[in-house]
Amino acid sequence: MRARFYSQGEDHYKLDPDLKAILDTFAPGLPQEELSAFGKLVGEEVLEVAHHVDQDAPPRLQMHDLDGNRIDRALLSPAQKTLLEKLRPMIRPAYEGRGWPLHYAFGYLLADGGLYCILTITHQVAYALHKYAPEHEAVKRELLYGPAFGATWMTEIQGGSDLGANRTVARREGNAYRLYQGDKYFASGAGLADYAIVTARPEGAPAGPKGLGLFLLPREVEGRLNFTVRRFKEKLATRAVPSGEVELEGSLAYPIGKLEEGIYYTLENLTVSRLANAAAAMGIAKKAHLEALFRVRRRTAFGKILLQHDLIQHDLLEMRLRQVGGTALAFLAIQAFDQAWEERPPYSEGYHLARLLSHLAKGRTAEHASAITALAMELFGGLGFLEEYGVARWHREALITPIWEGPANIQALDMLEAILKKRAHEPLLDMLGESPRAQAEAHKILKKLQEEGPWYAKEALRALADAVTVYALEKVAAEPFPELAELYTRRFLKGETLPPSAQRPELYDPWSSLS
To answer: At what angle do helices 457-475 and 425-432 cross, to 10 degrees?
Structure first.
């Protein structure tokens, strides 16, 4: 596989000193041997199997068994099935008292959108049961320790990100409910999930998102299929996760917690997956960054190794600033969530801050990932556009990160709601007090947001994310982060060009510290 990936066979944690510096700042004390072992698994088996699944063996839908019974099962490559069981332990840390940062560090290192999606939606079901439905402890253990997989089916064809437009109706039947008129149109894990959490509106509940309840939907009831999968979708990337269309008509489901609080449980689950999206976005970007760092050391053009060219060094600095900025922002948001995740409605100021940070991180990291992976392809030239090599796939994989869990417009509107209704900007400004320039920029952004409202919300999301990123980078004491924080401020917060004085290996080349 070294014919496809330069980083094949390498320890991806060891190759990433910037990640270690960021984790030491926002999640000190994480187990280094575990992270290194996982980095080796990624560099060896994960790269090979994920590329095989993407190119040769995506999941297929088998709708009937030999006797003609409807089964709607996802058929996985044996290599993918084996790998998923090796990866399953990465979803457990928070539920075993080891915290969320370790899980998200594993997610960053894994950095395969499809594989990580399967694992994320599995532990999201466990998350809802852990907090709000302890009567389903046995199901939670099946999800965390095997063999079950989970899924989160919220959106519907007519609404997409507008959850309030959901049409699925929940009709009470004893201690359970039956779901009708359900068309979960972009259902990740379809055909694979043994249990899903789904949104539905109980009969008599009000219209809009606050009328939604959250339900546990088993795949089978008394040996019979409890929902049907209409088809799998053909996707640009994330092919390892089967995505399909699920129909609910008379499907038995069990209420989770208080039905009138269903929208809050749903938003909690979205926070979990938005942070996963942020970690994965920067992990995908890092995979492309690693390939580029190998490439510029091996390729010669115009009589010099690529690394010796001025413009290549400029590109590498741009990539590194986006990489460290997005990663620091993601793990700052993860740190805040880790401190507040066990809260229940009504939430504290700390929880609202964590939620605000999740919107900023999700939105900005997706932009950084798309830009980094595109530049990595460009540094490879025409070879970077060929599917037979690995770098093209990282760009394809990165392109889902702006869309999953709500595109930038949704993140901007949710950010606006968190500010206007929850006053989440107040603890944010207090936090930024440690960085006068970040706080000053945030004040300007919030003032303009107040004046212009939703029209400016997406620009405010990006700008506020960059202000918080500067704060996060300033907190990382390891060299050369203080100078990287200055350069990030200049390039992204102020929109200025990078100065010639930044043309130094310790700034544009993260591996200079390893040599």
So the answer is: 40
